[in-house]
Design goal:
Layout lengths: L3 E2 L22 H7 L3 H4 L6 E2 L5 E8 L9 E9 L7 E6 L1 E2 L4 H12 L2 H6 E6 L15 H9 L9 H22 L8 H14 L5 E6 L1 H12 L4 E7 L23 H18 L3 H4 L10 H17 L2 E2 L5 E2 L1 H11 L6 H12 L4 H11 L11 H13 L5 H14 L10 H5 L21 E8 L5 H10 L3 E9 L9 H13 L5 E3 L1
Parallel strand pairs: 5-7, 5-8, 8-9, 9-12, 12-13, 13-14
Antiparallel strand pairs: 1-6, 2-3, 3-4, 4-7, 10-11
């Protein structure tokens, strides 16, 4: 199971100043209409200054939307006020699952939205349930999380001994998460988050939702449109994720269908694109130095395979004593494939590993896992990602079935596939799930919804965007012909102008951008 991250800038965590809520009295007629969720929809949002020109607030939502009297959780929001005349509120989510919208706005506003949107909207970042400053998933101490994420499992990947050891680790991790997080683990699904988003819309006093969702955040936006089509204002789904779009024609049931190999194929395609650019001496891949590989594309792919195999047999030691195994090296490679702007870092990673230096590989993997240099974790994205994934998708932890999946992934992606093949080991030990997976969303009656796909996106393959735009009754496809995960606000004027125009005016047409 892979975390699908939209934005990868490292941030330094600090405590946000968040405040509680009070509950005013509503007219009896409205109160009756809102029951049994009235107390949540009538709460007062108190915004407090939290520096950087931002305001922060904490609201309350039902732990279980099906049984709203069964308890509540906290949801954190961060607001950057419009710098000009306010047109409305724009909710943003960076994806993940497990990414913090609050951190995205607080630390990376310019990465989230361009100056045009900052001028016209109050930009609102929210932490989904289980994430960040909202009521969080907690599992292990930082030191124990290091062992879980970076430890080298004995045996060859996929062997019986390796699977047995992984299963033991997974049981311990799942027990720790259940002990620390309790019933929250049962209510982290995307449908619940979409209902939270409507609560946030109402408390922001917006009649309709304007929303910019990256990657997994596009899935949240899709589910919102399915639940509340008449409340759709302007929805941008960038790096569109369509879990109903399987690579097996005729399969529409995501949970029961065969393994989807499209993401593995996309990562392998981007690895080949990087290696090709590197071997050709392109600056975007090597900067001012030289390529870490020589020969042909075929020999370079073989070299990468050998590096991964050697990582378990002869692991490199980092300055802090951690050992670089194949799983960590594979995750570092994949992290640098998310965006072609990171290709020079990937070239440096390969160069250093070949010379016995694990520092760049660990830096990449640490950034991916939100791990600071001192060994602390500045958010809980790594564990919340696992918790959400296991709840939503469930597992088939039968060893034969897992090996069949691994074989299919390795055939689709001979270099990287097998390192992403055994997520079911953890999910097979998970105390909750799978959640009821929603049927394909049509969002009949919704205003036009902008779906963005990049042809060389490794994390959410372009086919997802094409399929989602067709699936949604009012979906409009905007295509970026290029590489990298997500498209908006990355320097392509065609994409940026189309998104800004849509969010400001509602005008949108299908287009191709180069």
């Amino acid at each position: 199971m892979r975390r699908i991250l939209a934005l990868s800038a490292t941030v330094v965590a600090v405590s946000l100043l968040l405040t509680g809520c009070s509950i005013p009295t509503l007219p009896a007629k409205l109160l009756s209409a809102l029951q049994p969720t009235a107390r949540f929809y009538q709460q007062k949002v108190v915004w407090e200054d939290c520096d950087n020109g931002m305001s922060c607030a904490m609201i309350h939502a039902p732990l279980d939307w099906k049984h709203p009297a069964a308890g509540s959780i906290e949801l954190a929001m961060v607001k950057h006020p419009a710098t000009g005349t306010k047109k409305g509120s724009l909710l943003v989510d960076p994806g993940g699952p497990g990414g913090s919208g609050g951190d995205l706005v607080y630390y990376g506003l310019d990465d989230a939205v361009d100056p045009t949107l900052q001028k016209n909207f109050d930009v609102i970042g929210f932490d989904p349930r289980g994430v960040g400053q909202s009521t969080p998933v907690t599992c292990l101490s930082d030191a124990k999380l290091d062992d879980f994420l970076y430890g080298i499992t004995p045996g060859e990947v996929g062997s019986d001994a390796w699977v047995a050891a992984k299963t033991t680790q997974a049981k311990a991790f799942a027990r720790a998460c259940e002990k620390q997080s309790g019933a929250l683990l049962a209510h982290l699904d995307a449908t619940s988050v979409a209902r939270d988003m409507d609560l946030e819309r109402a408390l922001l006093r917006e009649e309709k939702l304007d929303y910019l969702g990256y990657s997994y955040g596009s899935f949240l936006g899709t589910l919102y449109a399915g639940l509340y089509p008449k409340r759709v204002g302007h929805l941008v789904l960038d790096g569109a994720l369509d879990p109903w779009n399987l690579s097996h024609p005729g399969d529409s049931d995501y949970v029961d269908a065969p393994v989807n190999t499209e993401q593995e194929e996309a990562f392998e395609h981007e690895l080949k694109a990087f290696l090709g650019a590197c071997l050709r001496g392109e600056e975007r891949a090597i900067g001012t130095g030289g390529c870490s590989f020589t020969g042909t594309l075929s020999t370079a792919l073989t070299d990468v395979t050998t590096l991964l195999q050697d990582a378990d047999e002869h692991p490199l030691t980092a300055a802090d004593g951690r050992l670089l195994g194949s799983s960590t090296l594979a995750s570092a490679i994949m992290a640098d494939l998310y965006d072609s702007s990171q290709w020079q870092d990937l070239n440096d990673l390969f160069t250093r590993v070949k010379h016995g230096d694990a520092s760049t590989a660990f830096a990449s993997s640490d950034n991916y896992n939100s791990r600071a240099d001192d060994g602390s974790y500045y958010d809980n994205s790594a564990v919340s990602n696992l918790a959400i994934g296991c709840l939503e998708y469930g597992s088939d932890d039968d060893p034969t079935a897992m090996k069949d999946v691994a074989n299919a992934l390795e055939q689709a992606a001979p270099v990287l596939g097998k390192y992403d093949a055994y997520g079911d080991i953890l999910c097979g030990q998970w105390p909750y799930g799978p959640a009821d997976f929603p049927p394909p969303v049509r969002a009949r009656g919704a205003a036009p919804i902008l779906v963005i796909g990049t042809t060389g996106d490794p994390a959410t393959p372009y086919g997802d965007a094409v399929a989602l735009a067709k699936q949604l009754d009012s979906g409009v496809l905007l295509t970026l012909n290029g590489d990298g995960h997500t498209a908006y606000n990355k320097g392509n004027t065609c994409i940026d102008d189309a998104v800004d125009r849509y969010l400001l005016t509602g005008k949108v047409t299908a287009a191709q951008c180069d």
